[in-house]
Design a protein that fits this description.
It is a single chain. It is globular and about 55 Å long. The chain has one domain: Sandwich (Jelly Rolls), CATH 2.60.120. Strands 1, 3, 4, 5, 6, 7, 9, 14, 15, 16 and 18 form an 11-stranded mixed beta sheet that branches. A 7-stranded antiparallel beta sheet has the order 2-8-17-10-11-12-13, with no helix packed on it. A hairpin with a 5-residue loop joins strand 11 (178-185) and strand 12 (191-197). The chain is 6% helix and 40% strand. The chain has 290 residues and is mainly beta.
Length: 290
């Protein structure tokens, strides 16, 4: 026993001597890399934005220190067509500097674990967010996205923000808030639709105030951005201002997480036999400044 204790003591001492030392003689700890949002971006007043989050998807897999795949719930396309969110390389992948989120239709239906009745569906979809990892109140949020080129119904894609449940109650929707920077629908292949959900539009969106129809062609890269300040929100598509809201709703005075989702279409955009599947939402980068 004494020999074993002496051996452990010597091993611990050797590890201490071999470890790199920092100021004060303590073992140096690697600092997390600062986010890099590319070239300095200036505000309208000429002051620089400060980068707070960035992912250019340059690795060989999803960076799970930044993103959490969604495995709860499902995206509804109606009683006959709904997709189960899963954490699978079939629907979530990173390669060649691009994140890919897919909607796939399997040959045979399978149970969806997150469905209240574990109901079966042949559809699976990819969605992820910064839940529990990153959130921010105010700032600039931007993503560059390409979706499947088609004018057939059945597909929907979203770049959106959701209140951080660690800091606020999210159970009473839409009063709790939701910021859809851009939603794209394959039935409408030449537009993107932002939507600011809150108590201000319980009966539906208000054109030019809480929603808009922004020019954005499917099948090509589009850059969507939100500039969010106390009492003001402005959404840009490819650098062009598309929606300005000066309402200052209380739902937009708290921290939000970032989310990306490939959905199955619903209602007038529900899938048909002509819906191209598998379908993909490609994301070149996501960047956030404050």
């Amino acid at each position: 026993m004494l020999k074993k204790c002496v051996l452990l003591l010597l091993l611990a001492l050797a590890c201490l001597l071999l470890a790199p030392l920092g100021p004060g003689g303590l073992t140096a700890q690697a600092e997390p890399a600062a986010p890099n949002c590319g070239p300095t971006l200036l505000r309208s007043d000429g002051a620089p934005w400060e980068c707070t989050f960035a992912d250019d998807f340059n690795g060989t897999g999803l960076d799970r220190t930044k993103w959490m795949p969604q495995t709860q719930g499902f995206t509804s396309g109606g009683p006959a067509a709904w997709a189960c969110y899963v954490d699978s390389p079939d629907v979530i992948g990173v390669a060649d500097g691009v994140l890919t989120l897919r909607l796939v239709r399997d040959a045979q239906p399978s149970p969806c674990a997150s469905h209240p009745r574990a109901q079966q569906t042949p559809y699976r979809a990819g969605s992820l967010s910064t839940y529990g990892l990153f959130s921010q109140q105010y700032g600039r949020f931007e993503a560059r996205i390409l979706n499947t080129a088609t004018d057939q119904p059945g597909l929907q894609e979203s770049f959106w923000l959701w209140p951080d449940a660690r800091y606020s109650n999210t159970s009473v929707w839409p009063v709790s808030g939701e910021i859809d920077i851009a939603e794209t629908y394959s039935r409408y292949p030449e537009m993107a639709i932002p939507f600011l959900h809150s108590s201000s539009n319980l009966l539906g969106g208000i054109q030019g105030v809480t929603t808009a129809q922004c020019a954005a062609q499917r099948g090509v890269w589009n850059t969507f951005a939100l500039e969010w300040a106390p009492g003001r929100m402005e959404i840009f598509v490819n650098g062009t201002s598309c929606l300005v809201n000066n309402g200052g709703d209380s739902a937009f005075r708290k921290r939000y997480i970032v989310a990306l989702t490939q959905l199955i279409g619903a209602k007038r955009n529900a899938p048909t036999a002509a819906t191209p599947l598998p379908a993909s939402m490609y994301v070149d980068y996501v960047r956030v400044w404050q």
